[in-house]
Amino acid sequence: MGKEEETVERLIGWVDHQPLVRAMVLTSSRAIPDAPVDAFSDYDVILALLDVHPFYADRTWLEAFGPVLAVYRDPLEAYCGFVKSAYVTQYENGLKIDFTLWPVEILRRVAADLHLPDEFDAGYRVLLDKDHLTDGLKPSTYTAYIPTPPTETEYQTVVEVFFLEATYVAKCLWRDDLMAAKHILDHCMKQEHLRPMLEWHLEIDQQWSVKPGPYGRRLRKWLRPDLWTDLESTYTGAALEANWEGMFRTIALFRKVAIEVGDRLGYAYPHALHQRVAAYLQKVKNLGRGAESF
Considering Cα of 263, then 264, then 268, then 271, what sign does the dihedral take? Predict the structure, then answer.
């Protein structure tokens, strides 16, 4: 028995002895046929419960799967008129299980719905169902979380906000405020705006058929090699000048990708905006640190 099968058997054996747990559903990568998994791939498990509160109030049940290294618990929140929660649990032995705590009524609604929620449509596997709660579940199409083509408005908005974020990076670098500059450059500019543009680019090449994964986890697999090399060059350390260069390289990569995406989708790249912002950023960079006005 492989490690995954062994873990699944442990989960099923534990649920067998939990009268409040009426069903257990595995989702995400370990529920998708032929999905890439490795030693650090987690188990996303939905527990359908007669009562969520005992599992929320007492977390000692998590120790049934090994010593807990670190854990995060979602607050109780309303959903479809009921309350749900979740535990993100990292074990000392490397096992990671994300437990979603649902009242059985939520699973009944999902099973009765004509359309699966994305989490299920991406792939699911019923591990145990004591009360036939999942009998009505539709089969997964495995197409959830595949990006779809942006509208022209969505495309233009990503470009506009990207350049607005660049002005904040420049201001923070001029002030020598490294932590803020790094956050805006590496998260806001790259994760929130460059990454979607890169994903649209690769999806065009792949006929809108692949899942890049959260945070760009699988970009390297699908992205054109020269674009990946350019992306690597945008990351740098703490030196002020290096971060100015990293920002300008990020803008150069964004321009290259956005123009290609726009051309292939029939959207015009705003060259005038780019030129205005580029000139502004260079002016900020050249501005003396003791300047009292721009």
Answer: negative
Of 159, 166, 163, 106, the residue nearest 134 (C-alpha) = 106
Distance CA 37, CA 34 (A): 9
What is the average pLDDT across 98-118?
A: 96
CA–CA separation, 48 and 84 (whole Å): 10
CA distance linking residue 43 with residue 95, whole number of Å: 8
* Res 290: pLDDT: 78
Helices (H), the chain: 3-16, 53-57, 104-112, 118-121, 152-174, 178-182, 195-205, 219-222, 225-232, 240-265, 271-286
> What does DSSP say about strands 21-27 and 68-73: parallel, antiparallel, or unpaired?
unpaired
The pTM score is: 0.90
Q: pLDDT, tens digit, for every residue of 13-56? A: 999 999 999 999 999 999 998 888 998 999 999 999 999 999 99
Which two structure tokens, joined as six digits, stand for 176? 């020598």
Would you give the DSSP letter of residue 59? G
Token pair for residue 201?
Answer: 């680019």
In the chain, where the domains are located = 7-129, 152-286
Fold for the domain defined by 152-286: Four Helix Bundle (Hemerythrin (Met), subunit A) (1.20.120)
- The token duo for 138 is 């539709």
Q: CB pairs under 8 A, 24+ apart, for 217-224?
A: 219/195, 223/198
Tell me if the domain spanning 7-129 has CATH number 3.30.460.10: yes
